[in-house]
Specification:
Elements (H helix, E strand, L loop, with lengths): L4 E4 L2 E4 L1 H12 L2 E2 L1 H11 L8 E7 L18 E3 L4 H7 L3 E9 L10 E8 L3 E9 L10 E6 L7 E8 L5 E9 L5 H11 L4 E6 L5 E5 L4 E6 L4 E2 L10 E3 L9 E6 L1
Antiparallel strand pairs: 1-2, 3-11, 4-5, 4-8, 6-7, 7-10, 8-9, 10-11, 12-13, 12-17, 13-14, 14-15, 16-17
The structure holds zinc ion (ZN) (2 copies).
One zinc ion (ZN) binds next to loops.
Length: 258
């Protein structure tokens, strides 16, 4: 992992967003603007544009203005603006797979992170529609326009990264490969390349070294006289602390997560 470890009096962590960005950069074959727009419009109630209604159809079925007229019963499927991804899954267009989910309390992440694979099985497209009530304030809208056409989402595997302990924030979405791409291989690669559960400590003078796991600040001696607690570490400076080894005079201990 090529992400800097932050060391301070009350901090021993890596930036979750940096780790997710690094993972997405490693997986990215291309960007995924069409699906990214759909996710932005469906996942954030009121955040993107609360007034836009989203409809979808398979890629070969055109959606024109009359197809989304108020009161149309046999028009394209309406995607709820709170959980559009689940609805696309129910309609059989895609499946969703959890690749990684880690909290800040059980790792060295400064906040939680999640990575999700979205496997699109059938091509589809969407339109965003704005309805207006000009003449009457109740009943069906009397004016409407298709305001956005994000384009066709083709069958393939997309990977989406997010961070946050309580409320998650999108970090990015990338095209990762063809629809048959093995998500177990992605899970394995993330675990191997982005270990956020182990922290190594090494003295630059005497070479003593320690390790800690699962977000703990207790460092176990690997080649050193004793364990030490990061809370008791002295003379913090430039991401290092004073070496706790009894015979080491001025060694500095550096930390690396991963
Ligand atoms: Zn030392
Ligand atoms: Zn120990």
């Amino acid at each position: 992992m090529d992400v800097e470890t932050h060391v301070g009096y009350h901090e021993l962590s890596v930036d979750a967003q940096d780790t997710v960005t690094e993972i997405l950069n490693g997986i990215r074959m291309a960007d995924a603007p069409a699906l990214a727009t759909v996710l932005r419009m469906t996942d954030r109630p009121g955040g993107y544009d609360a007034d836009t209604s989203l409809y979808m159809a398979d890629a070969l079925t055109k959606i024109g203005r009359e197809d989304v007229a108020p009161g149309t019963v046999d028009g394209p499927a309406y995607l709820d603006d709170t959980d559009g991804l689940r609805e696309l899954e129910k309609l059989g267009y895609l499946t969703v797979h959890d690749l990684a989910y880690q909290t800040s309390s059980s790792s060295y992440l400064d906040e939680g992170r999640s990575l999700t694979a979205i496997r699109v099985l059938r091509p589809f497209h969407t339109v965003g529609v704005v309805y207006r009530w000009r003449r009457a304030l109740i009943g069906p809208a009397d004016e409407w326009d298709i305001v956005t056409r994000p384009g066709v989402v083709w069958p393939c595997v997309y990977v989406r990264g997010a961070v946050g302990d309580y409320r998650s924030r999108d970090v990015g979405l990338v095209y990762a490969g063809p629809p048959e791409l093995d998500t177990d291989a992605l899970i394995y690669a993330i675990r191997e390349d982005s270990d956020v559960f182990t922290c190594h400590a090494v003295c630059d003078s005497c070479g003593a070294d320690w390790y800690a796991t699962d977000g703990s600040w207790t460092f176990h001696a690997n080649q050193a006289h004793a364990d030490f607690g990061f809370d008791d570490a002295r003379r913090h400076a430039a991401n290092t602390v004073l070496c706790p080894e009894p015979l080491c005079v001025s060694g500095r201990v550096g930390f690396t997560v991963g």
